[in-house]
Amino acid sequence: MPDTALTRPAAHPTDPETYAALHADAIALLDGWRPTSPAAAAARDRTRTLLDAGPVTMSRPHRPGHITASALVLDATGSRVLLCLHGKFGRWVQLGGHCEPTDRTLAGAALREATEESGIAGLRIDPVPIDVDIHPVSCQGGSLHHDVRFAVLAPPGAVEQVSDEAEALGWFPPDRLPEPLAGGTVQLVAPALAALKRSPLRLAP
């Protein structure tokens, strides 16, 4: 098998074609989504406007703002949520992060991030978002994360493994989340539990 890394130019995050498929997925996803709260509706509308700037909005170099994907992981019974104590800002938060050139869907990006950061194989995701949130970050000297959030279900007996990005991982009852808690994380609990009841969570496309 030829070494494709040598025979094919590497994708560059500022090349519009790099994120074209993911950008198209984001537009279709948000255009067809029914927001879970008034705040999520306002964030969806702002995010949809951002996407008009093109595929570059899917990558972290876009300083006016860029799309990220995150996931609230539930245990197999739906009675606990998995959060990480983030190493950079010292707060408990759901799993997630930046999109990568290999991502083709936002649900897939969220599932990848949740798998990488939890170390749990066999996670399942509901590809319908549970929230959209916009918050300031330090990327590129100051930017905005337009975070599209999903519900993810862990398999029975799942054992988490702490990644390099986290100080710790922990399972918590939805009504007893840890402190200090990142802003916007608590608002994911109700729509995530509703997603679990609505339909079986499944693998991302």
UniProtKB/TrEMBL annotation:
Residue ranges of every copy of the Nudix hydrolase domain listed in the record: 64-194
Domain of life: Bacteria
Family under the similarity heading: Belongs to the Nudix hydrolase family.
UniProt name for this protein: 8-oxo-dGTP pyrophosphatase MutT, NUDIX family
Lineage: Bacteria, Bacillati, Actinomycetota, Actinomycetes, Micromonosporales
